[in-house]
Amino acid sequence: VRRSRLDGGPKGLAVSFEFFPPKTEAMEETLWRSIERLAPLSPAFVSVTYGAGGTTRERTHQTVARILRETALAPAAHLTCVAATRAEIDSVVDSYAEVGVRHVVALRGDPVTGLGTRFEPHPEGYDSAAALVAAIKRRHPAMEVSVSAYPERHPESADWTIELDNLKRKVDAGADRAITQFFFDNDLFLRFLDRVDAAGIALPIVPGVVPVQNFSQTARFAEKAGASMPRWLADRFEGLEEDAATRQLVAAAVCAEQVLDLVDRGAREFHFYTMNRADLVYAVCHLLGMRPGGKPQGVEAAA
Ligand code: FAD
User: Fold this and answer.
1) Which reaction does it catalyse (predicted)?
2) pLDDT, tens digit, for every residue of 149-159?
3) For residue 271, which atom of ligand 1 is closest to its CA?
4) Distance of alpha carbon 168 from alpha carbon 202, whole angstroms
5) What is the pTM of this model?
6) How many CA atoms lie less than 13 Å away from 152 in the CB half-sphere?
7) Ligand 1, atom 17: nearest CA belongs to which residue?
8) Do 119 and 166 touch, CB atoms closer than 8 A?
């Protein structure tokens, strides 16, 4: 692993971790083992995704509530506009506020009719992420709201003007930060920051980093999300289909290289798409200089 300016210590760095709500008891155990392992690294927040079409509404809520109950972590609940009325969405946000959730990741979501089709808002629903952000801020002004950003453009954006106008609408509606879709080519991210700056948009933009736990699964996600998979990345995993141990080492090296290069180029915050698994993320955070300890972010009660 290359050295980076970080060798002076992790000063000023912040990380956050994204999880998805578990479907089965076994998945729930995996998730909680991961949370227990990552919690001592004192992430700025941990976020829990919301299934396409609102299919995980209950499970997202339960997972977020359990994090609040059993850990000292700050949970952020993802929420989309899909297939729900404004009243339904408002009541989800109200119920988060009631139990003490202070952060929502507000998204439009994907069309229920499938990717590649046009997003049709629910007739009584919010029609965009910006409308959702505005509604959350109106009802709960102190609620922190993160939104998405796309260094390679959202697949629906015909051009950068549309993409940046959309981001600007979310900022104008009150978004506090954007978290990016994952990417592997850091130049794309830096170019995106330049575009955002040039458009006069002032918003902290946190790079979303995905450790490649499983190359073909990551490639499938990337295709759906409109994120490019560079040839060199495929080359690095080539021939390792049956060799999980080497795959894991290569994945850690690839992710460390990406993150340390971003640090050298000025990034100070990272959002990790954990896929509910801790090992790779823990190793990369260790390379970032993060160590368990400091203010306890304990999950003692969760065991
Ligand atoms: P938006 O920012 O609202 O817009 C997406 C695109 O739509 C824009 O780039 C633009 O091209 C177009 N657009 C929007 N409004 C207009 C307009 N008025 N005129 C022209 N074009 C317009 N999905 C889930 O289902 N659950 C999750 O928990 C979840 N979490 C995510 C977390 C992050 C950090 C990211 C990056 C994505 C996440 N997604 C999640 C995926 C997301 O729901 C999809 O990418 C979805 O297609 C877009 O939602 P958005 O909020 O990113 O879209």
Assistant:
1) (6S)-5-methyl-5,6,7,8-tetrahydrofolate + NAD(+) = (6R)-5,10-methylene-5,6,7,8-tetrahydrofolate + NADH + H(+)
2) 999 999 999 99
3) 34
4) 9
5) 0.94
6) 18
7) 166
8) no
